[in-house]
Amino acid sequence: MNILLLGSGGREHAFAWKIVQSKNCSRLFVAPGNAGTAAIATNVIISVIDFEAISNFVLDNDIALVVVGPEEPLVRGIVDYFISNPKISHIPVIGPSQKGALLEGSKDYSKMFMQRHGVPTAAYGTFTTENIEEGFEFIQSQALPIVLKADGLAAGKGVLICLSHEEAIQSLKEMLLERKFGEASSKVVIEEFLDGIELSIFVATDGKNYRILPEAKDYKRIGDGDLGLNTGGMGAVSPVPFADSEFLRKVEERIVIPTVKGLEKEQIPYVGFLFIGLMNIDGEPFVIEYNVRMGDPETQAVLPRIKSDFLDLLIAMGNQKLDEYTLEIEPFTSTTVVMVAGGYPGDYEKGNKIEGLDGHLTDNKSFIFHAGTSLEANSEVRTNGGRVLSVTGIGEDVEEALQNAYKGARKISWKDVFYRKDIGQDILKLVK
């Protein structure tokens, strides 16, 4: 079949890499893609939120499956657009409906959903400019630290952890009155701080059946020691040793099943991936947030561990036959190191030539996944974003996987390249 994949990041390159390995893939198109996807698929210059152009392309190119990588087109309602258009309504789209996408699109909505279905999460309050004084009072009543979250999409940067009541009050003013995160912070969720070890669980669902993919731990802050500004993600490890079988059983029973059944009960169409950000507190799982797509860079660590045909998984999801799909997982460890432009997540340069790229697959032990890259007419690959690319290493254990990831990263360079040198070190300490 011909497939259209929407997106241009490392997640989408990893998706493309797995999809083209399938015997069922005739042609893969990626819109808009990057230099990495251009090497294994056909890039098309279409915006992920230009639904009319996407619809026309699907009809003109006999597309049988559409896979949505990022959250924005989902929150804007691309699935509903397809369902409501008789010409394309028969084509499966991997992604939830607009109402389902609210689980990520609105922190307040997702917290209310969790409450309705008994999903364990942190206590919270939601505030706008109209009740900002109540927000100040709520902050004063909370133990420290205090978590403030922009209600809407903020590119993974709308979460603040405040160490004092004064800082939290000032941050609330900036978010609500000064629109620090734009429209995303017109409403702010204030949460109790959950003190534990963070990890992510990934679920594939057809709206009724589900499969739990390998878990991962990511590293959000820009600097070693988990210091500095929040980013979209600087690295990931899969599996994680503190997510043993008993913990994962609790996650499935208390979180995955109530969530999938809750969506079905509320008649919310949801065919796609569900990313559940968790906190492990003394062996008990609590939900930090839902995302309605796979994570980045977690996808680059998780997908190499999926042994079974990934396109068959997508087809089973799209045809509501996920109960017939057998998910097979590789036993090895996978680690991902994200390489970024100097200055990221602040201001950074684009257009710097990348050296040391020897193709997509380097040595069967490490893989390069492109994100913010562009392919020039002279076949040069240049930087075109903040998070430029990631290197995933695999090995029998965390130590070997990290060695392979960093070995791959050291081969690649461009002006002012930066990456964290401590990805997975906390897990290494746990297992030693």
Automatic annotation (TrEMBL):
<dbReference type="InterPro" id="IPR037123">
    <property type="entry name" value="PRibGlycinamide_synth_C_sf"/>
</dbReference>
<protein>
    <recommendedName>
        <fullName>Phosphoribosylamine--glycine ligase</fullName>
        <ecNumber>6.3.4.13</ecNumber>
    </recommendedName>
</protein>
<dbReference type="InterPro" id="IPR016185">
    <property type="entry name" value="PreATP-grasp_dom_sf"/>
</dbReference>
<keyword id="KW-0658">Purine biosynthesis</keyword>
<keyword id="KW-0436">Ligase</keyword>
<dbReference type="GO" id="GO:0005524">
    <property type="term" value="F:ATP binding"/>
</dbReference>
<dbReference type="InterPro" id="IPR011054">
    <property type="entry name" value="Rudment_hybrid_motif"/>
</dbReference>
<dbReference type="InterPro" id="IPR013815">
    <property type="entry name" value="ATP_grasp_subdomain_1"/>
</dbReference>
<dbReference type="InterPro" id="IPR020560">
    <property type="entry name" value="PRibGlycinamide_synth_C-dom"/>
</dbReference>
<feature type="domain" description="ATP-grasp">
    <location>
        <begin position="111"/>
        <end position="319"/>
    </location>
</feature>
<dbReference type="Pfam" id="PF01071">
    <property type="entry name" value="GARS_A"/>
</dbReference>
<keyword id="KW-0067">ATP-binding</keyword>
<dbReference type="GO" id="GO:0004637">
    <property type="term" value="F:phosphoribosylamine-glycine ligase activity"/>
</dbReference>
<dbReference type="Pfam" id="PF02843">
    <property type="entry name" value="GARS_C"/>
</dbReference>
<dbReference type="InterPro" id="IPR011761">
    <property type="entry name" value="ATP-grasp"/>
</dbReference>
<dbReference type="InterPro" id="IPR020561">
    <property type="entry name" value="PRibGlycinamid_synth_ATP-grasp"/>
</dbReference>
<dbReference type="Pfam" id="PF02844">
    <property type="entry name" value="GARS_N"/>
</dbReference>
<dbReference type="InterPro" id="IPR000115">
    <property type="entry name" value="PRibGlycinamide_synth"/>
</dbReference>
<dbReference type="GO" id="GO:0006189">
    <property type="term" value="P:'de novo' IMP biosynthetic process"/>
</dbReference>
<dbReference type="InterPro" id="IPR020562">
    <property type="entry name" value="PRibGlycinamide_synth_N"/>
</dbReference>
<comment type="similarity">
    <text>Belongs to the GARS family.</text>
</comment>
<comment type="pathway">
    <text>Purine metabolism; IMP biosynthesis via de novo pathway; N(1)-(5-phospho-D-ribosyl)glycinamide from 5-phospho-alpha-D-ribose 1-diphosphate: step 2/2.</text>
</comment>
<dbReference type="GO" id="GO:0046872">
    <property type="term" value="F:metal ion binding"/>
</dbReference>
<dbReference type="GO" id="GO:0009113">
    <property type="term" value="P:purine nucleobase biosynthetic process"/>
</dbReference>
<keyword id="KW-0547">Nucleotide-binding</keyword>
